[in-house]
Specification:
two-stranded antiparallel ribbon; single chain; about 325 residues; five-stranded antiparallel β-sheet
Length: about 325
């Protein structure tokens, strides 16, 4: 029996495309494609942005640059604009400046937020334009090191955790770091199931097709962030041997199919720092953060079934030796 051939990329190098970032679509160019373990990823350049914002994305986030998808782009923008952005604003390309947008339940500020403009002109507010740092002349500075200017002007994004969920973050920390317990894995209700239940909950409330489509993209984005960040940023030191065992015993299983709600909640403590590097204009960022805030409200509403100390177990003596 002949082995299955690798799938063929739908998009060619240099092709003009539309790419999802958060719940909205942006014009982009497919720079190159890569096939690994029968999964296709594309290296995307967002039109009008510095190359510092280029990134690898899965094929599910890329669409053909055709009239039907351009219409979808406009519909997504229009469907979400009125609900999440105050005032009447026309959609603009991500490469152009837009007036600062008041964000609801979110703190967005630059590290230079002491410099506030009181005029109604073109001054920069504390929640100024979210965009890439300006282009610089070539230098011999290490390109992997963030410049001082980029660090100062980089937008700091904070997602507000509901007050009622904060005690659980403390309990989670205490159970693991002080009581030396471990969250039982695989979780009774894994992250994928939590996200799927949330998407179904939103669909059951009779949202429009466009908002339903946007919710699906946001859920996919949360899953992707979780899978990427868990191993490097979301674990306590005591959990690392458990994580290593999971990787060894479940090499072909997504992390989001193994871990549960407590680790997912930790993601929202860290995700703001990651969003500071995304090529989203301020309107899109406000929209995305509103979706994240809505998801946190869902976690709060369902917290009795998602967060329980009974889901933790005391680590055996042999595990303690590994964790030293």
């Amino acid at each position: 029996m002949a082995p299955k051939q690798d799938p063929k990329p739908k998009f060619q190098e240099g092709e003009r495309v539309l790419c999802f970032h958060g719940p909205l679509l942006y014009e982009a160019k497919c720079v190159k494609a890569n096939i690994k373990e029968k999964h296709i990823k594309y290296f995307i350049h967002y039109s009008g942005w510095n190359k510092n914002w280029d990134e690898w994305v899965p094929e599910s986030r890329v669409l053909k640059y055709v009239d039907s998808n351009l219409q979808k782009q406009k519909e997504l923008q229009k469907a979400n604009q009125d609900h999440y952005v105050e005032g009447r604003m026309r959609g603009v390309a991500p490469s152009k400046k837009i007036p600062p947008v008041p964000l609801k339940n979110v703190d967005v500020k630059t590290k230079k937020n002491k410099q506030k403009s009181k005029s109604s002109g073109e001054g920069t507010s504390a929640g100024g334009d979210v965009g890439p740092p300006p282009r610089k002349k070539r230098s011999r500075v290490d390109p992997t090191v963030e410049s001082e200017e980029a660090f100062i002007n980089r937008v700091e994004v904070k997602v507000k955790i509901p007050e009622e969920l904060k005690p659980w973050l403390v309990d989670d920390w205490d159970l693991i770091t002080r009581q030396k317990q471990l969250f039982h894995l695989p979780a009774k209700k894994n992250v994928d199931t939590v996200l799927e239940d949330y998407a179904n909950y939103k669909k059951s409330r009779g949202n429009s097709d466009n908002k339903e489509f946007a919710v699906n993209e946001v859920v996919a984005g949360i899953r992707e962030y979780f899978n990427v960040m868990l191993g490097t940023q979301l674990l306590y030191k005591f959990e690392r041997p458990q994580y290593a065992d999971i990787l060894a015993n479940h090499p072909d299983t997504s992390i989001s199919q193994i871990y549960g709600a407590p680790h997912l909640l930790r993601l929202f403590v860290r995700i703001g720092a990651m969003l500071a590097y995304t090529p989203l204009d301020e309107k899109s960022l406000a929209l995305l953060l509103s979706y994240l805030q809505d998801f946190l409200k869902y976690l709060l509403k369902n917290s009795p079934s998602l967060f329980s100390a009974s889901d933790y177990e005391v680590a055996p003596p042999e595990y303690h030796r590994k964790a030293v």
